[in-house]
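Below is the data:
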Amino acid sequence: MPLLPLFETLRPHQWVKNLFVLLPLVFAKRLLASDYIWIGLGAMGLFCIASSVVYLINDLVDVQRDRMHPVKRLRPIASGRLSVTSARLAAALLTPGVLAGGYLLSPPLAVVLAAYIALNLFYSVVLKQLPYLDVLSIAAGFLLRVLGGALALGVVASTWLLLCTGLLACYLGLGKRAHELASLGDDASQARSVLARYDLAHIRLVMLLTAVATVAAYVAYTLSADTRAAFGTRYLALTGPFTVIGLLRFYQLVTHPHRESSPTDEMLRDWPFIGNLALWAASVFVVIYVLPG
């Protein structure tokens, strides 16, 4: 089995999305507790493997369509650098392995990992053909990441955390669809059949409404009495502007159709976006872990 094409198919550069698993660790004020940190990192590592299994399966299902895409045709399976047989064997070995690892770390985590893989299997076969339900299923995957982290750590994922995560994930998913429509033009439906059921102007409007809802939910969370009581400070609201800047920057990336790569990939290479994200993370840490003391 060729290891380099397999490693490329596993998409390690996308593992950063599994940082969502650590959100319960941060907002439950357990980030400085070493025992919790190792459990959280273990859960995140298992989600990295699970997400790689999902990429393998998705590339196997989409191999014919990927060959017609200007960028995806270069993927290892679509280009022939990784055989279908090797990809299937890797998925068959990794799936039981990640579920066994989840059970050893925390039995409820194994259930969430199984649900995550099952959801994405259903997405690859059915949901990806249904407009907006495809985006909602992507958002559900992020919610499962947060739930998995919370269950592994034995902490509660608040309703606010789940709401903000779900809205943000919907926003990112809508942005990806909008970019595909704009960049692929008349060939969009050939690369992804569901795009024939989307309208670019409509999806951008829904995207903007989702951005407003995301900001509103986050600000409401930071201003709530429960939040002030939990963290012993009222200054979490000061992190709100970073969320606005991040959402606006992502929208800029979406509305540049000359960029061939996905905006969700672009944002991980975009220094203004990364810098703003780092400032948000640092300010959250200061507000939650430094100011109350």
Summary: Residues 158-293 form one domain. DSSP finds 15 helices and no strands in the chain. The chain has two domains: 1-156, 158-293.
